[in-house]
Specification:
alpha+beta; Rossmann fold; Dna Ligase, domain 1; D-amino Acid Aminotransferase, Chain A, domain 1; 3 domains; 8-stranded antiparallel beta sheet; 4-stranded parallel beta sheet; 27% helix; globular; binds adenosine monophosphate; ATP-binding
């Protein structure tokens, strides 16, 4: 059996690019499928230029690769099932289906993984919003297709019901109780189908519903941190996880509630490239190949700042003044407002938690 494999990645964005970099330095070859010939992964891998649900392009990837993985969850699971060979997609498509639909996801988390989530119910039309107890606040989220706060309405009073009803009549939704959280955290966990390895707890700060900053370790008690890692491991084991998964959670007093899971490396885990002995991309590649996973060590506290289109100049100036900071740019040609262009990781003493771009 050859040690070096050809790994096919569905999606050639920054996550695909960073997965590819990890795979390449372990000696593997990478082919990514992406609609854009000049996608970030094109800097380091061959690209099959096609839409993600293009079955003949997926077949080409299947024929040319030993192992397949994906960089995002909105891959057509049926199309993948139709083409992959047994054992070729270690992450499987069940996990894709769970994370593509908030109803499946909540049911899986609450009933199967048995972790705490905000109280929720399935909403099939605006009729389900009648007789809502408006002493409490809620978040209404579309079951599919939402991201970064899109497809969501917060209901704090009767005044919000009209907008919420419109959303409820346009798509199947989940209604969650609003959690008054102290902070948002996430935990990266990677599996190889048998064992798992877990990363430190990340504290996440969002601006305009986009991740702005991650602070590691999260500013919570060791007991809460252990609880968060235990939850992530519990979910990973229930899934017989292969590859990397991110579990996003809310901390509310002594409680930890799971918000959602992402079946792939996650923006909040980018700090691990420099701050840990192995990055979330390294363990993703090891995991999907079914190889032994290392215990994760944090070398130093870290902060990670996202570089959006509007932050490019500030980020470059910052790294010129702070040469110990690590600037990553993903090679995207057009710097649009709010587009993730790169990130900066600052380690150790230089990691001031107040800094923002
Ligand atoms: P999501 O798309 O589920 O990740 O939600 C986007 C953001 O909305 C989260 O990062 C939270 O800041 C906020 N949010 C989501 N669900 C809730 C909730 N049940 N209670 C309070 N805030 C929430």
């Amino acid at each position: 059996m050859s040690w070096t494999k050809t790994i096919g990645i569905i999606g050639g964005g920054q996550l695909g690019q960073m997965m590819a970099i990890s795979a390449i330095y372990m000696g593997h070859k990478v082919i990514a499928l992406d609609p854009a010939a000049d996608c970030p992964a094109s800097r380091v891998a061959e690209i099959i230029v096609a839409d993600y649900d293009d079955v003949s392009a997926l077949r080409q990837l299947v024929e040319r690769c030993d192992i397949l993985t994906y960089e995002f969850e909105n891959v057509d699971a049926d199309a993948l099932d139709a083409v992959v060979k047994p054992g070729q997609l270690p992450q499987g498509t069940d996990l894709l289906r769970i994370s593509q639909n908030r109803i499946f996801e909540k049911n899986f988390l609450a009933d199967q993984a048995q972790v705490t989530v905000a109280p929720y119910k399935v909403i099939t039309s605006s009729l389900c919003l009648e007789h809502l107890d408006l002493e409490k606040s809620y978040v209404l989220k579309t079951a599919t297709g939402g991201y970064d706060g899109h497809g969501q309405v917060v209901i704090r009073s009767a005044a919000d019901l009209e907008k919420a009803s419109r959303l409820a009549n346009s798509a199947e939704c989940v209604l969650e109780e609003f959690v008054t959280f102290d902070l948002e955290i996430s935990v990266i966990v990677s599996g190889n189908g048998a064992d798992v390895t877990v990363f430190p707890v990340q504290e996440n700060i969002h601006r305009n519903n986009i991740l702005s900053k991650t602070i590691v370790p999260a500013r919570i008690s060791p007991a809460l941190a252990e609880k968060a890692q235990t939850i992530a491991v519990q979910i990973a084991k229930k899934l017989n996880l292969s590859g990397t998964l991110c579990v996003e959670m809310f901390v509310a007093g002594d409680d930890i509630l799971v918000n959602e899971i992402a079946p792939r490396p996650h923006n909040s885990g980018h700090y691990s490239i420099e701050a840990c002995n192995f990055s979330q991309f390294d363990t993703h590649i090891l995991g999907v190949l079914g190889l032994t996973l290392p215990p994760i060590k944090l070398h130093a506290p870290a902060i990670m700042l996202n570089v959006l289109g509007q932050h490019l100049e500030k980020a470059q100036a910052f790294t010129q003044e702070n040469p110990s900071a690590h600037l990553h740019l993903y090679g995207k040609l057009e710097a649009k407002h709010n587009r993730k262009m790169g990130h900066v990781t600052v380690l150790g003493e230089d990691a001031e938690s107040e800094r923002e771009f």
